[in-house]
Task: structure prediction
Amino acid sequence: MPTLFNNLGLDEQDVKWYHLAACKNMPINWFYDDYENDKEVAKQVDQICLHCPVIKQCHDEGVTNKEKGVWGGVYMDLGRPDKQHNSHKDTEIWKQLKKLHGKN
Result:
């Protein structure tokens, strides 16, 4: 019987969190340059992240590795939230992100 991993073309012994990310095949520039320059793209990316099954793992990866760009729904610079590029987010989005990241 085929497993979900087989259906997705994945070897369950070698699955990484990013193989299951909602953004897996999306244009990489959406999470960097486009996010920085276009608030509508930024809002669309935020919604993709908010519905991603691996949002917490993604966020943790961004923080741990001091990444730049969108990681777990938060635009980061050196693993820390960048206020300017997250300024479009309202209080409700931040509440959702904190909950999904496991921070109460």
Notes: The mean pLDDT is 90. The radius of gyration is 14 Å.
